[in-house]
Structure formats: structure tokens, C-alpha cells
Write a structure and sequence with these properties.
The protein has 84 residues and is mostly helical. It has a domain at 30-84. It contains three helices and no strands. It has helices at 3-23, 30-52, 60-83. The chain is globular, with a radius of gyration of 12 Å. The termini are far apart.
Amino acid sequence: MDTHSLIAWLIIGAIAGWLAGTFVRGGGFGLVGDIVVGIIGAFIGGWLAGVLHVHVGSGWISSIITAAIGAALLLIILRAVRRT
């Protein structure tokens, strides 16, 4: 992995984590937490899109959308588990 790919992952993760924290009630986890949630969410969103055979598109915007959906699902699950 080169430096540009790592920076792209961090930027997409930060944006996706922030978006997910905005849409899911309860706020985010701070910058580093949002990046982590966004990157994990990107994996979840990519896996889910593959399983459901959904293609959002290509490029930065579709990557952010897919990662944000996965991150929102992750936040919903984390908040549901934390409440119990």
C-alpha cells in the first residue's frame, strides 16, 4: 500500500465516520474514532454491497456513500449492544 492509498483510506474513513455519526443519533466518537468507524464501515458496506449485488458506482463519492452506510450500520449495532 502506498502513501496515497493510505491517505485516501483515512480521508474516506473520516468523512464516512462523520456522516454516520451525524445520521445515527448520539453523535460520533471524535476524529480518530470516526476514522476507525468509517474504515470498518467501509469493509462492512463493501461486503454488504457484494452480498446484495448492489453497485453504487465508482470513485470517491460512491466509496464515501458505501462506507457511510456500513459505518451507520456499525454504529447502530454498537449502540444497541452498549444499551444492554
